[in-house]
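Troubleshooting entry. The earlier prediction with adenosine monophosphate gave an output that would not parse, so I re-checked the input for stray whitespace and re-submitted. Clean input:
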Amino acid sequence: MTRRLTMALPSKGRLRQPSWSLLEASGVSPQEPGERVLQAHCRNADIDLLFVRADDVPEYVQDGVVDCGITGLDLVSEREANVEVLLRLGYGTCSLQAAVTMDDTATSFSDLNGRRIATSHPRTAAKVLSEMGITADIVKVSGSVEIAPSLGLADAVIDLVSTGSTLRTNGLRSLGVLFESEAVLIGRKGSDDLAAQRTLTTVLGSVVNARANRYLLCNVEKSRLDELTAVLPTKGSPTVMALATEGIVAVHALVPAADIWSLLPKLEACGATSILTLPVERMVR
Ligand code: AMP
């Protein structure tokens, strides 16, 4: 880091724990990680941390109270914050979905035209709907959005969904996704400390990339090497090494963690043996 950077982190809520664990895995965790601490210095890096609500992070960064921060992309959109999204962090994933009651006749977004929609994301909802040419009466609520239809407050809701179970529990049916969100690292636009911001983005990004991948090792008969490399979901070239046993080679490759499930049977079908997958600690492209 070239100079002390200030960074806002969620002090509570869903994004707190995974944000702290990302800093920990990146080797820049807070020195005093107590529940009630509002400010702390980072171990191993010139970063001052400020713990605030995730909702407040976009404004703090935009107004220059801090240089950067972690928050939800939905909150950046809703606050219409003039900030730079530096990095997608791969957790806090959810989507803003439109939903109606089970007995409603609506089957698509266009069926929401002219209807009352309750949401705690009124700006994003209005923007996305207007881009689709839909005019609706947006009812702003700050919590428990899902019960708005049963209270007679609205005909439909636009709410954050991760698994969909809250919608189902409240007797609602999704019409589809309007906006995809996840936790993001944001930075002040036109910041005078771009070098420090870039270093932080690289350090956190190396862990985010690593988490999304696994290091694969396996052995295969040399005669089936082409068959095996053809099924690898790998962008780069795999490493191929000769083994002491004649005719067998070891293959090492970085593969997306999400592909492991479908990849293992394909590797077995190519005759691969001694298949190992290992977590990766850091990955800088
Ligand atoms: P908090 O209200 O502090 O718990 O944080 C809410 C933020 O967590 C939202 O703005 C989203 O970015 C993220 N999030 C992830 N999954 C969900 C979900 N199922 N419902 C609400 N927020 C979610």
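This one parsed fine. The CA atoms of residues 216 and 271 lie 15 Å apart.
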